[in-house]
Amino acid sequence: MHTTVQDLRAWKQEGRRFAMLTCYDFPTAQILDQAGIPVLLVGDSVANTTLGYDTTLPVTMEEMLHHTRAVVRGAGNALVVGDMPFMSYQVSVEEGIRNAGRFVKEGAHAVKVEGWFPELTEALTARGIPVMGHLGLTPQFVHTMGGYRVQGRSDEAAQRLLEQAVGLDKSGAFSMVLEGIPMELGREITRAVSVPTIGIGAGPDCDGQVLVITDLLGLGGGKYPKFAKPYANLRAQITTAVQAFARDVETGTFPDEEHSYR
Fold first, then answer.
1. β-bridge mates for residue 42, sequence order
2. pLDDT, tens digit, 9 for 90 and up, residues 42-53
3. Angle at 167 between CA 165 and CA 172, to 5 degrees
4. Are 190 and 181 contacting, i.e. CB atoms less than 8 angstroms apart?
5. What sign results for the dihedral spanned by CA atoms 117, 119, 121, 127?
6. Is residue 63 flagged as an active site residue?
7. Residue 17 and residue 206: Cα distance in Å, rounded?
8. CA-CA distance, 7 to 20, in Å (whole number)?
9. Which residues contact 133 (CB under 8 A, 6 or more apart)?
10. Exposure pattern of 45-81 as b/e (b: 16+ CB <10 Å)?
């Protein structure tokens, strides 16, 4: 059965936790979908995990749509969420609607919007485009924050994030990512809103959890954020495999008869 935004709402009511992962390509989408991951985020983190940029800021709409199309082709059951890139929605509500619509026309089922944009959230929802919010440490605001710093540590900042979360809930967001905030605040927001919260560095009490796929698979070369847990070390396995291939080529043992035609 295809996962929908209504499923996520129902899971919160049932107390059912769920996983979300970032995904950027067709074969990974197939693997994650077949593994039962219910939500795939085509994150703007593709900028620094896949495209080699230092931050998420340079990635364009065209690049995001390219990767979204690939993920949509690979995911048969998961809810696919397209991440609105920097300056694709901040200029005006009208431009945000136009760009969000492009994601949906390419096959995404929803979009994610970073930051406090209740008017845009309401406008998109009214036009049939489900919105996943994103509060706390929002990487598109890295220069404003002065780096990737935990947000909401002061009473004033925590209260502001709580109010914004409640506001996004009222504006029609079907879920929201909470990133880089104290676990106590993650718990408080999760209890205060009617929609699922999805944590990444927001403590264990969120309704769901998300990780960047390259962090989970251990492709980052040993340097990971505090909130990331590598569940594999594919970087080492890939290195071993390609070195073995190179040795076989150099020694003339590949291709052998089994891997040749007659």
1. 82
2. 999 999 999 999
3. 100
4. no
5. negative
6. no
7. 8
8. 14
9. 112, 113, 121, 165, 168, 173, 175, 176, 177
10. bbbbbbeebebbbebebebbbebbbbbbebbeebbbb
Q: How many Å apart are CA 232 and CA 221, to the nearest integer?
A: 12
Tens of pLDDT, residues 117-139:
999 999 999 999 999 999 999 99
Annotated catalytic residue within 94, 106, 163, 179: 179
Distance CA 26, CA 74 (A): 5
Question: Is 221 a residue whose pLDDT tops 90?
Answer: no
> CA 38, CA 172: separation in Å to the nearest integer?
21
Placement of tokens 């049932």 in the chain: 14
Dist CA 58 CA 178 (whole Å): 23
| Separation between Cα atoms, residue 231 and residue 134, nearest integer Å | 25
Q: Identify the CA nearest to 172 among candidates 123, 223, 231.
A: 123
Q: What is the mean pLDDT of the chain?
A: 97
For 41-70, give the DSSP string. Answer: EE-TTHHHHTS--SSSTT--HHHHHHHHHH
Whether residue 183 contacts residue 202, with contact meaning beta carbons closer than 8 Å, is answered with yes
The answer to whether 44 and 83 are in contact (CB under 8 A) is: yes
Q: Which residues pair with 79 in a beta bridge?
A: 39
